[in-house]
Design a protein that fits this description.
Layout lengths: L1 H15 L9 H13 L10 H8 L6 H24 L5 H13 L8 E4 L2 E4 H19 L6 H13 L6 H12 L4 E2 L2 E2 L1 H17 L6 H17 L13 H10 L7 H13 L6 H11 L35 E9 L5 E9 L2 E2 H11 L5 E4 L6 E5 L2 E2 L6 E7 L2 E2 L8 E2 L3 E9 L1
Parallel strand pairs: 5-14
Antiparallel strand pairs: 1-2, 3-4, 5-6, 7-13, 8-9, 9-10, 11-12, 11-14
Helix pairs in contact: 2-13, 3-4, 3-5, 3-13, 4-5, 5-6, 5-7, 6-7, 7-8, 7-9, 8-9, 8-10, 9-10, 9-11, 11-12, 11-13
The structure holds cobalamin and 2-acetamido-2-deoxy-beta-D-glucopyranose.
């Protein structure tokens, strides 16, 4: 009897530890990690700094592939950011992710420079400058040039790189938390609260906001409450795709949450259900499942790293279009409010993008264009009308009245439905 009691006691002890990821989850973590590593192979377009971060914050590594990817970032991403800087485009988010990626490989940030109109300045100098432009825009127009998610990323990247963060930059973020300005469509942006939480926690730990510690603590505790209040019955915080960042933030803020284990389990359930097939999604979830946050980069030394991660060759799977067709209605609502409805039969399981391409081929009145982003193709122009970030507009996607939680490539048409594509302001 006694050994049983001891074992039961031990089990209770183990499972009462918050955020526990031990033991049997090893295989799942490894498979997510391999999928993330595999995403580097077929990658067309720019190397993804967030994927690099996800790989580097793991406990398992393939150091050759990671350093090859670092070189791609230093060439291709670097050039892309340099041309955006030259064209005066706001790039605080990409600059910040690039800095964090370099930091995650323990690369000396001071050796990285950008040359814009013949003057060469360091990466961190450019990042500070971008934050200043964002801050000015907040002062004049009450919103950042990009968004508060990128503004938070910028603050976080400066802070984990050991740069003394400007108190005005922190102050603007604290005020935005106070006024509850973090939105994604009509809903609260859990992703943004999480990123702001990590940024402000770093500022607190570094003593960069000592003159008004109370104000900072209030913001941090408001963020914590927001995140905890956004927990769904199934454990996810916000939705499947914000939970990784939310858990990272809670860990960074040192919360001993009883519900943290439930959020971990929710992510594992989603991972098993192949919800995280987009590498960007894995890159934000995997660090959390390893009980790490972007804040842990501050003390990363890259010593004695595991080098055991290998990719098994996989047989290419040829997916034939399904014989079964389903009816996809597409409603386009223009800026003027004018609406047009189209209909097309698509093979069951097609992506929304494939469906839209079929529709375009069949119906010359319907056209669209897309742009690439870290999350994949982003719908930017429909029927000749552009919904631009500079005008604070976007094409909102919904199905039978419910907002999609995925983009045009990831969302699959499994049943007859009406997709609404609406020019929406924010
Ligand atoms: C800000 C934001 C927006 C803003 C972007 C404009 C702005 N204000 O700057 C707006 C409100 C327009 C937006 C729209 C959408 N978004 Co959004 N967005 C974000 C957020 C919070 C930050 C993105 C960012 O700035 N990243 C930093 C920069 C450096 O990276 P970037 O790739 O260059 O950023 C650009 C793209 O990410 C693009 N973008 C934004 N959202 C989405 C979604 C998809 C699917 C794609 C392909 C691109 C994209 O806009 C960014 C700014 O230019 C993320 C949160 C997150 N965890 O990443 C969600 C997030 C990426 N969005 C999401 C979704 C679902 C959408 C929509 C599909 C919602 C809808 N039903 O319409 C639409 C996109 C529709 C389309 N036209 O293709 C999901 C994606 C999940 C997934 N598996 O794909 C996220 C993760 C939020 C979440 N947890 O659900 N979004
Ligand atoms: C898109 O529209 C839906 C339905 O009107 C809304 O609930 C949602 O908040 C909007 N925006 C986003 C980013 O999902």
């Amino acid at each position: 009897m006694l050994p049983l009691v001891i074992i039961a006691g031990l089990l209770a002890f183990v499972s009462s530890k918050p955020c526990d990821t031990a033991g049997s989850h090893h295989a799942l973590l490894l498979s997510l990690n391999q999928n993330l590593l595999r995403s580097l192979e077929g990658q067309e377009g720019l190397p993804n700094p967030s994927v690099h971060l996800g790989l580097r914050l793991s406990d398992y590594h393939n150091l050759d592939k990671e350093s090859e990817h670092l070189n791609k970032l230093k060439n291709d991403l670097h050039d892309d950011i340099q041309s955006s800087l030259t064209n005066n485009q706001p790039v605080v988010g990409s600059l910040a992710l690039y800095s964090l990626a370099l930091k995650s490989s323990c690369y000396d940030l001071n050796t990285i420079t950008f040359t814009v109109s013949e003057s060469s300045k360091t990466l961190l100098t450019h990042l500070k400058k971008q934050m200043e432009l964002e801050r000015e825009n907040i002062a004049f127009s009450h919103r950042p040039l990009t968004n508060y998610y990128q503004y938070s990323l910028g603050l976080l990247a400066l802070c984990v790189s050991g740069v003394r963060v400007n108190i005005h930059d922190s102050h603007k973020l604290i005020k935005a938390v106070e006024h509850e300005l973090f939105k994604h469509g009509d809903a609260e942006s859990v992703d943004t609260y999480a990123m702001a939480g990590m940024a402000l926690q770093c500022v607190k730990d570094s003593g960069f906001y000592a003159h008004n510690a109370v104000e900072l603590d209030t913001a941090l505790s408001n963020i914590k409450q927001k995140l905890l209040a956004s927990r769904r019955a199934d454990g996810h915080i916000g939705n499947e795709f914000s939970t990784g960042l939310a858990v990272q933030a809670l860990l960074a803020m040192g919360v001993e949450v009883s519900g943290c284990a439930a959020s971990m389990e929710a992510m594992r359930t989603s991972a098993r259900g192949n919800i995280y097939h987009n590498p960007m999604a894995i890159s934000q979830v995997l660090p959390a499942l390893h009980k790490k946050s972007y804040l842990t980069l501050r003390r990363k030394d890259c010593l004695n790293e595991d080098n055991s991660l290998v990719l098994e060759p996989v047989d290419p799977v040829v997916v034939l279009p399904s014989e079964t067709k389903v009816k996809m209605m597409v409603e386009v609502v223009m800026l003027s409010g004018a609406a047009a409805v189209y209909s097309v039969d698509v093979p069951k399981g097609s992506s929304l993008l494939e469906g839209l391409e079929l529709l375009k081929g069949k119906n010359p009145g319907f056209t669209f264009e897309k742009e690439s982003s870290l999350w994949g193709p982003y719908l930017s122009v429909v029927n000749g009308e552009q919904a631009r970030q500079s005008d604070r507009r976007y094409w909102n996607l919904s199905s039978d009245g419910t907002a999609l939680t995925e983009g045009i490539v990831d969302f699959k048409i499994e049943a007859a439905q009406k997709i609404t594509i609406k020019n929406t302001g924010y």
